[in-house]
Amino acid sequence: MGISAQKTINHVFGYIGMAILVIIIGVPLLWLVSGSMKTNPEFYTATPSLIPERIHLDNFYKAWNQASFGSYYINSIVTTLIGASAEIIMAVTTAYALVFVRFPFRNFVFVMLLVALMVPEQVVILPNFLTIADMGLLVTSSRDLSTQDYIRGWLAIILPGASIAFGTFLLRQYFRTVPADLVDAAKVDGASHWTTMMKVIAPVATPAIATTGLLSFTAKWNEYLWPLIVTFSDRLRTLPIAMRRLLDAEGNAEWGVVMAAAIFVVLPVILVFLYAQRYVVDGLASGAVKG
Amino acid sequence: MFVTAASFKKTFRRDWRDWITFVLFAGPNLLLFVIFTYYPLIRNFLLSFQEYNPIIDKGEWVGFNNYVDILIQDTQMTRIMQNTLVFTVSVVALILVLGLLTALLLNQKLRFRNGVRSMLFSPAVLAGSAVAVIWLYIFDYRFGLFFQVLKYFGINSPKWLLDPQWAMISLIIVYVWKNLGYATVIYIAGLQAIPADLYEAARVDGAGAWQRFRNVTLPGLSPVTFFLGVTSVLNSFQSFEIINVLTRGGPVNATNVLVYRLYEQGFTEIQNYGRASVVATLLFVIMFILTLIQLRAIERRVSYA
After folding, report:
1. Domain B75-301 is classified in which CATH homologous superfamily?
2. How far apart are the first and last CA of chain A?
3. What pLDDT does B16 receive?
4. Distance from CA of B280 to the nearest CA of A (A)
5. Residue range A146-204, pLDDT digits in tens
6. Closest to A124 (Cβ–Cβ): which among B41, B127, B190?
7. B267 touching A (Cβ < 8 Å)
8. Which residue, among B249, B139, B157, B125, has the nearest Cα to A255 in the 3D structure?
9. What 3-state DSSP class applies to B165?
10. Residues on chain B touching A265 (C-beta within 8 angstroms)
11. What's the CA gap between A129 and B180, in Å, rounded?
């Protein structure tokens, strides 16, 4: 058999393999989209179809208005943006300090960070719950909340996850590859550490910072266990928790609304991912291969 | 070379300013770690020896009572440990093997391969809770997709999430579906990092495709496999939302794992903080040991060729 025949066979198998992958990954996603547009009779049938009978947006309307997903969006957006911003800023400053600022206990600090990387959220979730309660941040009232209640509730969701080990680690690895000449030149020019970080390091490290930021964003947006535990008031629910409660309340009666709610949960992440997936995929991959 | 008082003073002043900068830059992050990672780690350990009363916010020391309750008295614990082991081992093995296969597939110069790669990766960024909701509907044994497909082939669908025999398998399917793409992406990067001349040299030596895979690709990928192995074990150990949405540890504890037991003990009606802390301590010790074992294994086996 000639080389080109072998190649053709490989290609044929390759495309068959890719088709199988597309079906395995795509059909459940399609099932979600089609489910969100189905009416109840279309759900409870022995012959469900992958394509809904018609474009039917009632479920989205119901999820948005009756299940007040509009207001849950605010909780998710506020906690995600503040939480992720805090993480990015602290990851950059901490990584910068670890690489470029002289300090006697620098290695100790780095080890502290590595150990924190190995402590899973679940292990510390109970004491953290007690800490947040001691700080007076648990909002238990389900009546109309004051602005102060919202701030307390948001803080309860944001605070325990605001520190960042993985991103700091990722950025530290990246900053170490920045040529020392660049930093020295800035120093000779009399630039402060702040200026050096903002004007010299950050621009060079933009891809790595973007990766860290996107990972933080998706992690915060998707967070489930912690918000589940600390949101007693239904007004403070983030989207994943609101979807869960909707499932408990309507799961058997209104599948379509629950599916629409699930779409509300995943849509922002999908949009961001479509726009910036290069950073996520390449960033993660290079972190794994080089790190 | 000697240090004059003036130059000493100068370096000291510069050092001192550096220290302040360091504290300002790294301090907030570290402070949060102390409050929300280190302190709770210790407090959790202390809580595990207490009978804690949430109403008066006070604990009473009870020695090893909670440990006895969880490790010896709790008849479900063996089941839960088995479940955790089965889930972790199956999920990690499947993700590594399938991840490598898909990476080998997508590493070929095929059209659309980047699109397929992105698609494969996409479930990894979606909320686990939303993914679980999709699969809840797929697994429905009367109206779901699997039921429908199996019926087409004349097979009776199992009751998936409602059947103790199938519930764990269902969870494994969902977890692998969600996280496979991540492994694929990492493996592709690993494959592309293997120098092409190694393959050329093997070819010149007359190595066939299988031998090249066995002697060049696999050893070249071992650091990546190690990385993926560690992260997959740790991640699968922490998998919570899929279980919480799909099975809540049931039916009859068939899918109850350590993380879920922790949640049940601490945050459902039971609300026994002491016992929950024992489960958390157990979880931490196991994860720590696993990481150490893997680190040791890798020191001996990994080739950085």
Report:
1. MetI-like (1.10.3720.10)
2. 43
3. 83
4. 5
5. 888 999 999 999 999 888 888 898 899 889 888 888 888 888 888 888 888 988 888 88
6. B41
7. yes
8. B139
9. helix
10. 127, 129-130
11. 32
Using an 8 Å Cβ cutoff, are B292 and B246 in contact? no
- Six-digit token string for B135: 């699969």
Q: Domain A58-290 carries which CATH code?
A: 1.10.3720.10
pLDDT value, residue A199: 87
Instruction: Decide if B104 touches A, using CB distance below 8 A.
Output: no
Where along chain A do its domains lie? 3-43, 58-290
**B138 to chain A: which residues are within 8 Å by CB?**
28, 31
Cβ A102 vs Cβ B18: under 8 Å: yes
- Residues near A153 by beta carbon (within 8 Å), at least 6 away in sequence: A75, A137, A139, A145, A230, A231, A233, A235, A236
Min distance A31 CA to chain B CA atoms (Å): 7
Helix, strand or coil, per DSSP, at residue A263: helix
CB contact under 8 A, B32 and A96: no
Whether pLDDT at B1 is above 70: no
Q: Of B72, B71, B102, B131, which Cα lies nearest the Cα of B191?
A: B102
Taking CA atoms, what residue in A is nearest to B32? A163
Per-residue pLDDT tens digits for A32-72: 998 888 888 787 777 777 777 777 888 899 888 887 888 89
Give the gap in angstroms from C-alpha A227 to the nearest C-alpha of chain B. Answer: 12
Q: What is the ipTM of this complex?
A: 0.90
Q: Do B186 and A28 touch (CB under 8 A)?
A: no
* Chain A nearest-CA residue for B291: A118
Does the distance separating the beta carbons of A94 and B280 come in below 8 Å? no
User: Which pLDDT score is estimated for A274?
Assistant: 86
Cβ separation A14–B185 shorter than 8 A: no
Contact (Cβ atoms closer than 8 angstroms) between residue A79 and residue A155 = no
Of A28, A102, A123, the CB nearest to B135: A28
Give residues 58 to 87 of B whose Cβ lies within 8 Å of A. none
- With CA atoms as reference, report the closest residue to A82 among A149, A137, A161: A161
Query: With contact defined as beta carbons under 8 Å apart, do B217 and B191 qualify?
Result: yes
Q: Nearest chain B Cα to A103, which residue?
A: B19
Domains of chain B by residue range: 5-65, 75-301
Query: A210 pLDDT exceeds 80?
Result: yes
Q: What does the pLDDT average to over B213-242?
A: 88
B213 has pLDDT over 80: yes
